Amino acid sequence: MFTDFFYILRQNKVPVSLVEWMTLMEALAKGHIKNLDDFYFLARAILVKSEAYYDQYDVAFQQYFQGVEAPEEIAGQVLDWLKDPLNRLFLNEEERAKFEGMDFDELIKELEERLKEQTEQHDGGGHWIGRGGTSPFGHSGYHPAGIRIGGQSGGRHAVQIAAERRFKNYRSDLTLDVRQIGMALKKLRQLRRTGLEDELDLEGTIKATAKNAGDLDFIWQRSRKNTVKLLLLMDVGGSMEPFAKLCSQLFSAAHSSTHFRDFQYYYFHNCIYDYLYQDVERVDAVSTLHLLHTLESDYKVLLVGDARMGPWELTERYGAINYYERNEIPGILWLKRIRDHFSHSVWLNPDDPRFWIHPTVQIIGKLFPMYSLTLGGLEQAVGKLVVAK
Amino acid sequence: MEKDNFAQFSGSEDYVTSEPLRNAVNVSIALGRPLLIRGEAGTGKTLLAHSIAKGLEKKLITWNVKSTTKAQEGLYVYDTVQRLNDSRFGDKNVSDIKQYIKLGKMGQAFIAPEKVVLLIDEVDKADIEFPNDLLNELDEMSFYIPETNETVSAIHRPITVITSNAEKELPDAFLRRCIFHYIEFPTPELMEEIVRVHFPDIKDSLLSEALKSFYKLRDVDDFRKKPSTSELIDWIRALIAGGIPHENVSKQMPFIGTLLKKESDYDFFVNNFVSRRR
């Protein structure tokens, strides 16, 4: 039953497994479903395990159930219609002959046939199921044979709930809030035993105590701490304006994460040249060379920017957008230096990946692994930052 | 089993539920599978278990999970230290290991003579492997104690409610076995109902003013921690206790500290809401 729905869900990237599908079948077999609304919530509770997929579920549900109501209801309507002899008056000779020759089951079968053949919403016309047509199936048709399927039948039904797509904002391929970014950044950790020996080594203590014939002998060890140091370099101003909020969320998440051993951040405009800046207004400058000298190569580097600029800004001497910068070394070489100095670096691009065909985005994408600044992208980027090299 | 009466749970008088949530609860009871509840902090995830227990008149067993909790502790603990102590100083028969096996919360739920509600609170606080270690126990509702060569199996499958704050991702194998429900933030209409449950004789004017201000604050995206239901309840309690004239509520926003708990949020509020009015 509903097997296609399973595949439509999977097409929509909802991670449904057979185990869950069988559970749903079990629940259906118990017969607790009275209508499509019940089915919508039941299937969602069983099949979908994170609010991040609620939206995809809604989309799949719409695709599968668009314009269809629960079979019982259709059956009831067909039956009611057939019971009313007045309805038959409106049929022409040919149709009457056809329908009178059909028993109820055949009619339902015919309905199912046509439902199967039909692949899209259909209004008007004389054969397909749709609205306002003369086909015996559909709704709002002047033809009395119009078995009403869907349409306004009072109350919100499940397809409408699905059509609302209230859970759009929970999708994991969209960015959410500071907390979620913080969660993603939490994965950025490498635990190592450092510092004073201030943690009780239980295993060791037991062993030593046993060796000591039962007299307690405490063994201490260093506690595990996160050794990740993070360097955040953010493009501000200009074309980054639309993403300002997103970037500030990323920043506050990184800033409030207490688990990094060190966290440093600097700003730049479009591309990095001789100087990086400690403030958004780009007044307090720090020499990029100085940073490269003073920061160890084990800093994890997160570069954030749309990477869109005039090609000359990236490749030319004196190409900087700010005329007075007079960079002797083209930006691309600076970027290369940064990439070569640090063992792990990634570029987060808040722009829609569809626009990454821009030439400078392409060039920078070859220098740094580039990910979109969404939860999914951030998680991938973090994964890239912690792999051992 | 319980298939005869599917719609068992219909909320309790002090807890307002939405229809999807009731359905999810009933599905999980009917299928005997754990119900995993997620949602924003303060939307009543833990209270749900209390409400189920109350609504169905079952005993509630709560297992509060902490970062150091091990799955084993929920099943049973073998108190070796006590046994060692008894072997040296005590007068008990230490060869009877049974008396040193103490059942954990899950074990207690299994051996309870009648069906109970088992709440595993904040499952994501523990180690990432924690849920995986409980897979079999949740599936079979039984576990084996090697020390005494005994198998403890559930007399009645407990109604299991698991809450999570999404701090850590839960393993897929675990999720596959659960019924999942995400508690959405209540709509103003539902919120009104919820508030009325807590304050049956609240004045309409106060309620509408408070809700108006509350949802205005919720709309501000710049707060680090948006106020939630439990904070609203606290706030209204403070408003009633303080006897604030109703028409002043939305203008002055008194007792804002009950709604905004972070210093930065408070500063933001003062800068953006208070100064504008002066």
Terminal CA distance of chain B: 65 Å
Class from secondary-structure proportions of chain B: alpha/beta
β-strand number of chain B: 9
Q: Rounded to an integer, what's the Rg of chain A over CA atoms?
A: 32 Å
Query: What's the alpha carbon Rg of chain B, rounded to whole Å?
Result: 23 Å
Distance between the termini of chain A: 49 Å
Shape of chain B: elongated
CATH class of the largest domain in chain A: Alpha Beta
Strand content of chain A: 5-15%
Strand content of chain B: 15-25%
The CATH architecture of the largest domain in chain A is 3-Layer(aba) Sandwich
Strand order of the largest sheet of chain B: 2-5-8-1-9
Helicity range of the residues of chain B?
40-55%
Shape of chain A: flat
- Largest interface here, residues on each chain? A-B, 28 and 29 residues
Largest sheet of chain A: 5 strands, parallel
* Number of individual domains of chain A: 4
- Tell me the number of helical segments of chain B per DSSP (H or I, 4 or more residues long): 13
Which strand order do you get reading across the main beta sheet of chain A? Answer: 6-5-9-10-11
Describe the structure.
The complex is a heterodimer of chains A (389) and B (278). Chain A has 389 residues and is of the alpha/beta class. Chain A has 4 domains: 3-68 and 162-170, no CATH class; 71-152, no CATH class; 178-187 and 227-386, Rossmann fold (3-Layer(aba) Sandwich); 194-224, no CATH class. Chain A has 17 helices and 11 strands. Chain A has helices at 3-11, 18-29, 36-47, 54-65, 71-83, 85-89, 93-100, 104-117, 158-164, 178-186, 202-211, 244-256, 288-294, 311-315, 331-341, 359-367, 375-386, and strands at 130-131, 138-139, 191-200, 220-226, 229-235, 262-268, 275-277, 285-287, 299-304, 344-349, 370-372. In chain A, the strands form 4 sheets. Chain A has a 5-stranded parallel β-sheet. In chain A, strand 7 and strand 8 (285-287) form a beta hairpin. The longest helix of chain A is centred in the N-terminal third of the chain and has 14 residues, at 104-117. Chain A is flat, with a radius of gyration of 32 Å. Chain B is α/β, with parallel strands linked by helices and 278 residues long. Chain B folds into 2 domains: 19-183, Rossmann fold, CATH 3.40.50; 188-277. Chain B has helices at residues 19-31, 45-55, 71-75, 80-88, 105-111, 130-133, 135-140, 172-176, 188-198, 204-218, 229-242, 249-252, 263-277; strands at 35-39, 59-64, 76-78, 101-103, 116-121, 142-145, 150-153, 159-164, 179-183. In chain B, strand 6 (142-145) and strand 7 form a beta hairpin. The radius of gyration of chain B is 23 Å and the shape is elongated.
